[in-house]
């Protein structure tokens, strides 16, 4: 009697192992390239998306939008690109590396200062004071292009002590006291916690609003899943997450 029982046990173990291997092979990874300003909210969105799509792992890669676009052009594998401005997305679309993008959020700039505002920054013009150390995004990055536009329209000369490759770099410099002020997105202030405060630059031009587009990339191995993620942030639960995080509607 022992041999039949042993045979059955072996069959059960083999079947269990096969099922486990099958389940493992069915898991899919969705790689999303996203602008640095989306870091916190996209981590929450990724968790929500995974919960609604069992077997899917969302792998997030954050950096300045222009850096991500360059990586895509150079052949970096990814499924979705979420940029912080439409100009950067256009470079990827014109290279025929992305499908038609969809807007999913808007944002605007504010002045970030260290807690307590030690330099007494009150308005945009204060960023040009000789006693103020200012940090901005590099001009090729969306937040840098928008910063240059904002300062030029206000007639404020830009004299940054350093130019960062992403808005996260500006936020870090301000929060660590390496700079008296920097221009970041409104939604980034919360990321700085109690080490950073905001000073309203008092601008209301529609040109000061940045629009975020997302697109399925042409070389994706999971086109349906990538499209589902874009829908998730445009009209799905991800859109609500974005509004809660302070991003404007598209």
UniProtKB/TrEMBL annotation:
Residues 1-20 form the signal peptide. One of its GO terms (biological process) is molybdate ion transport. InterPro entries: ModA, ModA/WtpA. It holds the Pfam family SBP_bac_11. The keyword Mitochondrion does not apply. The keyword Transmembrane does not apply. Gene3D superfamilies: Periplasmic binding protein-like II (3.40.190.10). It comes from the Bacteria. Keywords: Metal-binding, Molybdenum, Signal. PROSITE patterns: PROKAR_LIPOPROTEIN. Molybdate binds at residues 37, 65, 167, 185. One of its GO terms (molecular function) is molybdate ion binding. Belongs to the bacterial solute-binding protein ModA family. This is Molybdate ABC transporter substrate-binding protein. It comes from Aeromicrobium phragmitis. The lineage of its organism: Bacteria, Bacillati, Actinomycetota, Actinomycetes, Propionibacteriales. The gene is modA.
């Amino acid at each position: 009697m022992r041999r039949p029982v042993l045979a059955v046990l072996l069959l059960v173990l083999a079947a269990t192992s096969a099922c486990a291997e099958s389940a493992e092979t069915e898991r899919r990874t969705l790689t999303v390239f996203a602008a640095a300003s989306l870091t916190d909210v996209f981590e929450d969105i990724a968790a929500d998306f995974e919960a609604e799509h069992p077997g899917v792992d969302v792998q997030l890669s954050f950096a300045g939008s222009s850096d991500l676009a360059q990586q895509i052009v150079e052949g970096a594998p990814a499924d979705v690109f979420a940029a912080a401005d439409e100009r950067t997305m256009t470079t990827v679309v014109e290279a025929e590396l992305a499908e038609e993008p969809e807007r999913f959020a808007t944002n605007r700039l504010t002045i970030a200062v260290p807690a307590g505002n030690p330099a007494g920054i009150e308005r945009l013009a204060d960023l040009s004071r000789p006693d103020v150390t200012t940090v901005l995004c590099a001009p090729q990055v969306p937040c840098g292009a928008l910063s240059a536009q904002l300062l030029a329209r206000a007639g404020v000369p830009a004299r940054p002590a350093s130019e960062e490759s992403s808005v996260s770099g500006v936020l870090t410099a301000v929060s660590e006291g390496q700079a008296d002020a920097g221009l970041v997105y409104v939604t980034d202030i919360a990321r700085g916690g109690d080490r950073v405060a905001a000073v309203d630059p008092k601008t209301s031009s529609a040109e000061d609003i940045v629009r975020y587009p997302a697109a399925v990339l042409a070389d994706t191995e999971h086109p349906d899943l990538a499209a589902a993620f874009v829908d998730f942030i445009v009209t799905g639960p991800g859109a609500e997450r974005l509004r809660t995080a302070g991003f404007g509607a598209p």
